[in-house]
Amino acid sequence: MQIDDVDQRIIASLVADARASYAEIGARVSLSAPAVKRRVDRLRAAGVIRGFTAVIDPAAVGWTTEAFVELFCAGRTTPAQIAVAVRRLPEVVGAYTVSGEADALVHLRAADIAHLEDALERLRAQPFVTSTRSTIVLSRLVDSPTVVAAPT
Amino acid sequence: MQIDDVDQRIIASLVADARASYAEIGARVSLSAPAVKRRVDRLRAAGVIRGFTAVIDPAAVGWTTEAFVELFCAGRTTPAQIAVAVRRLPEVVGAYTVSGEADALVHLRAADIAHLEDALERLRAQPFVTSTRSTIVLSRLVDSPTVVAAPT
DNA sequence: GTTGAAAGTCGTGCCCA
DNA sequence: TGGGCACGACTTTCAAC
């Protein structure tokens, strides 16, 4: 899909505040509210904008422990298999196939160490997982929900 | 702050759709729109809800290359120093101090390999960085913007 | 792409239980 | 706390330009 820089600025506006009114966004990008709505509808239909979400403080909802787990998988494991498996764990907030020694990197978020260990156990129970290497997060320095190009 | 399970369900609603009206959320949690608004205002003021954002397809905006970079830092480097440095790079979408060999883990998102290399160079230019180890993301299996407890 | 008008919905402050 | 009401603003869909 073609995205011009007006679209970019609309996206940046929505990333900064997803509850902004179309009139408000229009003022920032010099467009009328109906014009903004049409562009947003088009961007949503095209899958560029996947949805709108609230950014929650993980600690406030009791999600205080995080880890990154490197996954080492059996020879003929496909990314799709890994994807299916990790999506079953609600503790998984991110998962990627990666270059290097490990086959995948899984980002876990849990209530506490015990919960984390429990999730890790379920992850290791997958038949294709040969071994794992965990790295506990000590503190969160940056955690942008999404970062998009230049603002207004 | 005290969060009851009505708050939890309101949060879950907003995470699922940040543009839902208060009346809509109220219908799901059996509350009137003003009551929902008051709770949301309170949650925002308390920092539980940090804001509302759009979930963007990174590929659609030209952000196609990702990497995780392990940072090895000089002896007396504080997390605050690392935080300041990584926040200066717009390519950083996440950064954490971690247990294990490395001191920090930085999640980068760039337009392409050249851009990634450029960002990495700027990261390595920090005086406290003694060395880095990069892991390129081959594919994104899961990338939840936020995951919160049980839905409605 | 724009404007302007229509009807319906929503946000939000205020008051009462 | 919660709900109800009221007013103004916003959304959304038209039409016509």
UniProtKB/TrEMBL annotation, chains A, B:
Coiled coil: none annotated. Keywords: DNA-binding, Transcription, Transcription regulation. Gene3D superfamilies: 3.30.70.920, Winged helix-like DNA-binding domain superfamily/Winged helix DNA-binding domain. PROSITE patterns: HTH_ASNC_2. Pfam families: AsnC_trans_reg, HTH_AsnC-type. Residues 3-64 form the HTH asnC-type domain. This is Lrp/AsnC family transcriptional regulator. It comes from Phytohabitans maris.
